[in-house]
Amino acid sequence: xxxxxxxxxxxxxxxxxxxxxxxxxxxxxxxxxxxxxxxxxxxxxxxxxxxxxxxxxxxxxxxxxxxxxxxxxxxxxxxxxxxxxxxxxxxxxxxxxxxxxxxxxxxxxxxxxxxxxxxxxxxxxxxxxxxxxxxxxxxxxxxxxxxxxxxxxxxxxxxxxxxxxxxxxxxxxxxxxxxxxxxxxxxxxxxxxxxxxxxxxxxxxxxxxxxxxxxxxxxxxxxxxxxxxxxxxxxxxxxxxxxxxxxxxxxxxxxxxxxxxxxxxxxxxxxxxxxxxxxxxxxxxxxxxxxxxxxxxxxxxxxxxxxxxxxxxxxxxxxxxxxxxxxxxxxxxxxxxxxxxxxxxxxxxxxxxxxxxxxxxxxxxxxxxxxxxxxxxxxxxxxxxxxxxxxxxxxxxxxxxxxxxxxxxxxxxxxxxxxxxxxxxxxxxxxxxxxxxxxxxxxxxxxxxxxxxxxxxxxxxxxxxxxxxxxxxxxxxxxxxxxxxxxxxxxxxxxxxxxxxxxxxxxxxxxxxxxxxxxxxxxxxxxxxxxxxxxxxxxxxxxxxxxxxxxxxxxxxxxxxxxxxxxxxxxxxxxxxxxxxxxxxxxxxxxxxxxxxxxxxxxxxxxxxxxxxxxxxxxxxxxxxxxxxxxxxxxxxxxxxxxxxxxxxxxxxxxxxxxxxxxxxxxxxxxxxxx
Length: 675
What we know:
By secondary structure, this protein is of the alpha/beta class. It contains eleven helices and 35 strands. It has an eight-stranded mixed beta sheet with strand order 17-16-18-19-25-24-23-21, with helices on both faces. Strands 3, 6, 7, 8, 34 and 35 form a six-stranded parallel beta sheet that branches. It has a five-stranded mixed beta sheet with strand order 26-33-32-28-29, with no helix packed on it. Helix 1 runs antiparallel to helix 2, helix 3 (111-124) runs antiparallel to helix 4 (149-158) and helix 7 runs parallel beside helix 8. The protein starts with a strand and ends with a helix.
């Protein structure tokens, strides 16, 4: 037998007190008066025997009652093989899943609240000297230390929903590593409690430890398993100009078993507000679109909200974008450049143009530019090629018009880097334009209709486009089947014209189609920032505005003001938030980017990976822990977790209390009988 609180056994020394009292009572004498002395001897013998038996029985009852009340406080138990370790070194390890799916409601409220209360119950009923390790999806340094009871309660009260989706395997591996360091010099048994809804999106194959660890996977079951969320938001056209109508697309997902009619959707972008009602089929998505026009330049912030009463984290989607007053065009002239190309842009006040010879270009020239036009360059030098590649890697776009005698090797290095067909030999036949790729967004809004018999220009010579493992799209196709204009889209756009616009190759540069190519490529090449990024993702937010201030860049919003991590690539600063120490403080919303002035806005949203509430079954959860010592539990409206004896030895102290009461009652009966 062992005791959870052996220090209480020192109270058994107090048993000497009733023994001493009884010994003194035995020595007391009492004078008896009798009418006849003949009865004295008989009465004295009878009284002495009766009193001695009475005193001994009462003393025994009192001693036994006191002994068992002391033992009850010491809480005796018989250790089993797995409980035979030193109780003073016991550790209770908890993982409380605080992902957003735990926002669903169970029989006693939010699942996360239920988990917190059950953990408190287990801690309350544990031994006073038990140590606790409490982990969540935060996985920060603050969760790598053992806590006493008071600290554990404080930690549990601080746990809130975390925007970071973590896999169960990752959390358990992390906690096992922490425990490995904490119990490096002992063989402490660990009772590992896991409170989660065991949603499929957050659980991968786990590898639980089998070394002195007993697992208690506890599955919290929501009363309602459906959910409605805003899946994604995007603009049909990337063009954001003053007075230009734009179409915003909103995709809503219904993860319920019933279809929804007239679901309320609220859109608010600056002063524009609109409410629409949509129907969403069961287990399907529906996309709706709204159109509006920006009447002023500047940063625009908005939010789209769907009315839902169940899981709320994915009901709002935040967006932000910027309507620019100008777009910057950088023209690089080569040996065979045509004159007057800049006039196409200067007619429109929206464009600011800069012109330089290819031999005079420096790295600084590419900063703040949106699109670069290569005008008649024959040889792409290594320096120019490096500048162009770096510019495109930061979201910039290029339109390439080679000279009459391009250096194929130098040009193909650039084209290969940007997934465009390589330049081949000169082709002098079949160079009349056959068709335009009307299906591509490049030609959206360019023509009122899509006629097949257009009076299209021709070129006298082209360069064969060699396609090999590339992912470009042809926009203009010649009669010989070769492309005249192709493009590839990555972070920016790369347009390639497979001929020369020099007059020796024809009069294509005088045709309206050439002007269309220049304007349309510039419209689609405004360097764009993402509408939003997910909290915790590796996405980086580019900051294209020039910032000469030496002050740190801050993100401000939702009552927070913090400095994000900043990387610089090709003269462009990239903000990232995936290195924050405490994601639990970071809420979705629109944040201003500021230094000594406002530099823009960034919208943060919660990851939607847990929007579809799809859970593992009890058998599947138990299978995860096969081969280990585990005890499966679940909490639902029909069943509840009993924490009274979970992970604890049998409570013999209750039997001791019952025996104490029996001996106290026995003493009372003896006193009354021998009165």
